[in-house]
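Student: Send me a single protein entry containing the residue sequence and its fold in token form, directly below this note:

Tutor:
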Amino acid sequence: MPNPKRRHSKSRRGKRRAHDALRTPQTVACPNCQEPRMQHRVCPKCGFYKGREIVQIEQNCLTAQPPFRRRTCAACRGGPAPAL
């Protein structure tokens, strides 16, 4: 197993880690509802992409969740509304 012959300096370590920082995701305004959304993805608020409705979003649901995690809340099923 190869081991380093000499210790790496702090500046060399810093140069290696210079590109490891997390960046904020690039967002654009949805042309349908003007909510921020990630580029080239379906809008999680209205379900539109490129002017077409791709995902049907339940508008009466009080707990807004992304489409891939959406579950019907008690208010949507006819039960009591959750306390906010």
Q: What stands out?
A: The chain has one domain: 25-84.
